[in-house]
Queue: 2 jobs
Job 1
Amino acid sequence: MKPLVAPSMLSANFANLNNDILMVNQSEADWFHLDVMDGVFVPNISFGFPIIQAIKKLATKPLDVHLMIVQPERYIKQFKEAGADILSVHYEASTHLHRTIQAMKAEGLKAGLVLNPHTNVMVLEDVIADLDLVLLMSVNPGFGGQAFIEQTYHKIIRLKQLIRDSGSHALIEVDGGVSVENAPRLVAAGADVLVAGSEVFKSKNPAQTIHLLKQ
Ligand code: DX5
Ligand code: ZN
């Protein structure tokens, strides 16, 4: 099975976003991955509603919004209105996760949950049936261009088993240090969606790199 590919716009050229949005539209990519950082949950600040709204105007593919912010439940409606199709919140950032997941679904969003590298997949056991997506961080969140954490393969396999056992339809997405080189092993382990930032946007031919990630 070919994976879905979601280029992370964090590594795009913000001085000519139009160009990179059109490239993703015309490529074999499946989703736009948008990283929102608040400078509190992670030691970096990226972008928020105005950029998401601008991308939404031009994008012909779903917006996969990854919130690296504290208390994400406060902003669900606003992210929906800005154009998010899939919204993912961190397990480590929301105390009443069950309520947060229900709130995302009530807004008509696909509901995703993100786990930091240190968080065990078994914490998902009681909510997995409600989720559309589980995003496994394969780097510590906050920055593009970091080295892939090898332990992720093992986590994907255990998460796949948990999803099977629970009858959940959740997709497994992997984010951080994903490359053309490690993609086949990630997909073999059970990854359904590959996020790639620097691998795509720092390459000479981003559309071709997306094509290779899909192989
Ligand atoms: C990191 C973000 C990632 C980032 C990935 O906190 O969640 O989506 O853009 O960048 P690469 O693919 O360069 O590791
Ligand atoms: Zn991300």
Note: The pocket of D-xylitol-5-phosphate (ligand 1) is lined by residues 8, 10-11, 33, 35, 66, 139, 141-146, 175-178, 195-199 (CB under 6 Å).
Job 2
Amino acid sequence: MPASTHSPVSVLGLGMMGSALAAALLKAGHPVTVWNRSPAKSGPLVAQGAHPAAAPADAVTASPLVIVCLLTNDTVQEVLDSLGDTVAGKTLVNLTNGTPAQARRLSEWAAGRGAAYIDGGIMAVPQMISGPDAYVFYSGDKDAYEAHRTTLAAFGGTKWVGTDPGRAALYDLALLTGMYGMALGVLQAFALVRTENISAEEFSELLVPWIGAMLTGAPEWGRAIDTGRHLTDVSSIAVNQAAFPNFLTTFRDQGVSPELFEPFQTILDRAFAEGHAADGLSRLADLLALKR
Ligand code: FVH
């Protein structure tokens, strides 16, 4: 039986993201019960109509669907351990950032107590919640997901990625890995231009289209990685390996730490030494795979 679009929902955790999620549920018309370790954070939501719960177990008792958004999954486990048997028959949707292994363990914990578990990875900052560009990866209990999908749509797009509870965290971490890689490059570029008193903000006008243009090559790298055919006529390991010392030397000459970029020279050197000189940079993804 699908849940009503206005069925009660409880939210555990009212940090920046949990508060945004609770506000989105209220806006969508759900009765919302909220709990936070520091009770003062529930104030603005209570003013919008949320019911405050004194303890996590009280919040869980109030609704069939419980959204959890705390700092870490260790914290989540601590809070869940306080729930006693209130969790039986409930659906837990954990939107806390964590690892695939943690998600699988939490799913087993829930199954052992008669609860359905869905893990999620939020691809948005709090201000984007409910907006057109926000979406969330979900994985785990498919029936529970289908039952509550309409409610979860209050946060933004819903992307189901499979019944392995760890899968949503993997997608989340993989996309964030791309973001952090981009951030490292952008910050290093800013640090470099600042050594000559060039405005970082003005330089960003060059950086943004450049990175955008370079990113259009990602599907081609993806194809090379999927097929194992890395030979390139665009930009070889050999040419990048020969040029990269110029970057490390310039960072040092200009007084910028090369620490974020030295590992890139290391893996280029390894690719070259292992006979991949004629391949494109896509080859590096293969070399990054550790033997398991
Ligand atoms: N903010 C963002 O942009 C990102 C977007 C993508 C998803 N992340 C993840 O969401 C989780 C929560 O992030 P947040 O931004 O809400 O974080 P905070 O504002 O710092 O709130 C943290 C909440 O966790 C509670 N908490 C911390 N430790 C404990 C504990 N030992 N026991 C119970 N609750 C705890 C904290 O409570 P309090 O400090 O207010 O009492 C907040 O409710 C996170 O996984 C992001 O990676 C956000």
Note: The mean pLDDT is 96.
